[in-house]
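Journal club prep — side note

Before the paper discussion, L.F. wants everyone to see what a predicted structure for a comparable chain looks like in token form. Sequence:
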Amino acid sequence: MDSPLFIFVKELPGWVLFTGIFLPVTLLLLLLIAYFRIKLLEVNEELATACSPPDAALDYYTQYRKLRRRFKQERSRART
């Protein structure tokens, strides 16, 4: 005796199998490939314009010093 799934697939027309299962899955995969390709290109552009790690560390340190200096000035103004 054949399984119900086998009988269902055997009686299923080919165009239903193609348009209902194969085509949507294929289009979804192509859409995902295109989406991730676009995102990868965006990341590559950002990496190309980003600073090198030593420069980024130096920028962070100088911003930290500016903020600390500003905080100290505001603190000294508040005390007086």
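L.F.'s comment for the group: The radius of gyration is 30 Å. Keep this in mind when we get to the figures.
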